[in-house]
Amino acid sequence: MIRISLFISGLLFGLASIAAADNFRCPNGEIVSTGDRQSIVAMKCDPPTYKNSRTESEAGYRGATILVSVEEWTYNEGPHRLVHILTFRNGLLDSVQTAGFGK
Predict the structure, then answer these.
(1) pLDDT band at 73 (very low <50, low <70, confident <90, very high)
(2) 3-state secondary structure of 6
(3) From CA 80, how far away is CA 101, in angstroms rounded?
(4) What is 69-94 written as a DSSP string?
(5) Staple partner for 30: which of 26, 40, 61, 86, CB 3.0–4.6 Å?
(6) Measured distance CA(31)–CA(21) in Å, rounded
(7) What residues form DSSP beta bridges with 23?
(8) By three-state DSSP, how is residue 46 classified?
(9) Pick from 86, 27, 70: which is nearest to 97 by CA?
(10) For range 43-63, the mean pLDDT
């Protein structure tokens, strides 16, 4: 009984750690995950449909302002596929969002 409980606990812990990362299947079939470098994503995926760059400021230690480079890559593969937006913060893939069906 203890072994079963430990097994189930370990399985749930493992699934929780997997769920923490967002994955994206590139149009060419490669898979990238949050935490990947922008250069790795560029090598694995086809070029995005649209790119947007900006700089954001965040509060840092003792009131200091930290500038963060943010770049969003949009993949629009047409009306029968979902649009995906990949957000990079300081060169690392931070999030993958779905924005409905494309055009």
Answers:
(1) very high
(2) helix
(3) 6
(4) EEEEEEE---TTSEEEEEEEETTEEE
(5) 26
(6) 12
(7) 33
(8) coil
(9) 86
(10) 93
Both tokens of 92, joined, read: 């690392």
DSSP letters spanning 22-33: -EEE-TTS-EEE
The pLDDT value given to residue 60: 87
CA pair distance 16, 91, nearest whole angstrom: 25
The structure's pTM equals 0.75
70: closest CA among 38, 45, 40? 38
First to last CA, the chain: 54
Q: 5: buried, middle or exposed (CB in 10 Å: 19+, 13-18, 0-12)?
A: exposed
Q: Which two tokens stand for residue 43?
A: 């090598």
Specify burial of residue 43 (Cβ count, 10 A radius: 0-12, 13-18, 19+). exposed
